């Protein structure tokens, strides 16, 4: 018996990385899953590797019409929707303000906020009637950058802080029908891309030695993979195990917030010396 037996989820950006792992984990927990994915090759590859428990909708999470089409396809295929997961995102590859060319800054802002914030809001709007009907939930992928500086440049960090605000406001508005929560992962090797305005549309985070990096930045000293985060989504989607959770964000970024311990111990040791 799985934690999500009989449940139906709709997820944006399930073609690679974290979203792809969430699809597999939700299936293992007994759910059926719909995926809104913009990349045709990833959408085709996903559809080829799953069965009738998954429906893949090719489309753009920044479009209200595509989000509505995804919800309609979910209902047509599975007859209900229990959880909407806003997940597709863009990173700014830690580009600091001074390195953002003034002439491209407005377009870079629009592209990052357009997916990371507006995309989640449009998905929430499209999914809301079906979620009210099922008394379901929403889950949004945040980031360590939703809490701390340094996980991105100002565009990404501000966009993920905005997602935390979105979660709290929607949780406030949608009680008692729909629970709204977030998961804030830290770095993991994925195909995360950047905005076209900064020429980063074909640059993949996963091309860097991310796995080794996670072991160094996390005070837990572990290599972190996208699948390590999926249990948080299962828990928050579960009606029986998370019925009291709304407006919360599972901060599971590997301990970024307590990573100052080693530096603090070194400083204290130097004072004692
Ligand atoms: N990789 C990390 O280190 C990291 C850390 C913290 C948070 N996150 C967050 O995790 C989430 C998932 O990213 P990931 O790291 O798995 O990257 P990813 O690029 O591997 O996955 C994102 C998926 O979204 C799809 N996508 C992109 N734009 C889209 C659009 N407009 N409409 C529909 N689909 C679209 C991509 O094709 C891809 O399949 C993002 O919100 C990201 O900010 C990632």
Notes on the protein architecture:
The structure is a single chain. With 273 residues, the protein is an alpha/beta fold. It has one domain (8-272): Rossmann fold (3-Layer(aba) Sandwich), CATH 3.40.50. Helix content is 42%, strand content 13%. The chain is built from eight helices and seven strands; from the N terminus they run βαβαβαβαβαβααβα. The protein has a seven-stranded parallel β-sheet with strand order 3-2-1-4-5-6-7, with helices on both faces. α1 (17-28) crosses α7, α3 packs parallel to α4 (105-134) and α4 packs parallel to α5. The protein is globular. The protein starts with 7 loop residues before the first strand and ends with a helix. The site of nicotinamide-adenine-dinucleotide has 31 residues, from α1 and β2. This is 3-(Cis-5,6-dihydroxycyclohexa-1, 3-dien-1-yl)propanoate dehydrogenase.
Main attributes?
3-(Cis-5,6-dihydroxycyclohexa-1, 3-dien-1-yl)propanoate dehydrogenase; 273 residues; binds nicotinamide-adenine-dinucleotide; 13% strand; globular; Rossmann fold; alpha/beta; 7-stranded parallel β-sheet
């Amino acid at each position: 018996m799985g934690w999500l037996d009989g449940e139906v989820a709709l997820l944006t950006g399930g073609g690679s990385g974290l979203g792809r792992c969430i699809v597999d984990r939700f299936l293992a927990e007994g759910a059926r899953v719909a995926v809104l994915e913009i990349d045709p090759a990833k959408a085709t590859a996903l559809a080829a590797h799953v069965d009738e428990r998954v429906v893949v909708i090719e489309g753009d999470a920044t479009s209200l019409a595509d989000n509505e089409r995804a919800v309609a396809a979910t209902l047509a295929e599975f007859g209900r929707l229990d959880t909407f997961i806003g997940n597709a995102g863009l990173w700014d590859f830690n580009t600091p303000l001074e390195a953002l060319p003034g002439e491209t800054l407005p377009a870079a802002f629009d592209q990052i906020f357009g997916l990371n914030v507006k995309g989640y809001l449009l998905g929430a709007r499209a999914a809301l009637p079906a979620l009210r009907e099922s008394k379901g939930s929403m889950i949004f992928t945040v980031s360590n950058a939703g809490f701390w500086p340094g996980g991105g440049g100002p565009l990404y960090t501000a966009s993920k802080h905005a997602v935390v605000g979105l979660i709290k406001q929607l949780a406030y508005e949608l009680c008692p029908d729909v629970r709204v929560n977030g998961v804030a992962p830290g770095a993991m090797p994925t195909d995360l891309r950047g905005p076209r305005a900064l020429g980063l549309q074909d640059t993949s985070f996963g091309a860097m030695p991310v796995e080794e990096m996670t072991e160094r930045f996390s005070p837990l000293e572990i290599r972190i993979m996208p699948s390590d985060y999926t249990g948080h989504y299962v828990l928050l989607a579960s009606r029986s195990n998370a019925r009291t959770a709304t407006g919360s964000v599972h901060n599971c970024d590997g301990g970024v917030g307590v990573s100052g311990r080693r530096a603090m111990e070194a400083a204290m040791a130097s004072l004692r010396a």
